[in-house]
Amino acid sequence: MKKLLFAIIACLALCSCNTQFGLAYQVKLTGDGDGQFSVTFPQGSYTMDGTATLALSVGDTLPFNNPQVTTKAEVIERGNARQLKALQAANDSIAAQFSATEGTSTYDLWLRGFVKEIGTGLIFEVDRHFTNRPPNDATHPHAAALRKAPASDPYPYIK
After folding, report:
1. How many CB atoms lie within 10 A of CB 10?
2. 57 vs 60, 83, 89, CA distance in Å?
3. Where are the alpha helices (DSSP H) in 37-157?
4. CA dist 150 to 31, 79, 121, Å?
5. pLDDT recorded at residue 65
6. H or E segment at 43?
7. Which one of 27, 45, 71, 80 is least enclosed by Cβ atoms within 10 Å?
8. pTM exceeds cut of 0.90
9. Cβ distance 11 to 18 under 8 Å?
10. Contact 22, 102 (CB under 8 A)
11. What is the percent of the chain with per-residue pLDDT over 90, rounded to a whole number?
12. What is the tens place of the pLDDT at every residue in 44-58?
């Protein structure tokens, strides 16, 4: 019986070592726009023509209730290659899969929420700001609170 139990545990351990990287999202895109602009996200896109306040919830089927969030500082400090790869994948995905483009408009949008890297199980907090308004513009509602990662930060969209 002990040998069978050991074999099952060993099999599970070996199978989990080859888990593929993948991402699941639970984010909110909030803000406002005036005119024509489009927002792209993994499941599709949203196009506006007019003045509106935006509050989109974008997510996968995985629940993120009270997630155990891992910070990028923790991953960098650990130096685990697999976790660093997961951190890079999460940041790159936010950069590539979420975007805003303008037509004849201004917009100020904030992407906040969580992304889970499936292979490692790490959950990262996402924070990305999209705007084409200058920070000193009176219509810019977040002028005093803009979060801008330093140019040297290789993971600017992960907290």
Report:
1. 10
2. 10, 27, 21
3. 72-78, 81-97
4. 23, 21, 27
5. 67
6. none
7. 45
8. no
9. no
10. no
11. 21
12. 888 888 888 888 888
Range in 7-16, 76-85, 98-107 with the lowest mean pLDDT? 7-16
| Residue 45: predicted pLDDT | 82
Distance from chain centroid for Cα 157: 7
Q: Give the count of beta carbons closer than 10 Å to the beta carbon of residue 101.
A: 15
Tokens found for residue 30: 């909030």
Sign, CA dihedral 62-69-66-111, equals: negative
Phi, psi of 122 (to 5 degrees): -70, 140
21 pLDDT tier (thresholds 50, 70, 90)? low
Helix, strand, coil percentages in the chain from 3-state DSSP, rounded to 5: 25, 40, 35
The owner of tokens 């959950």 is: 123
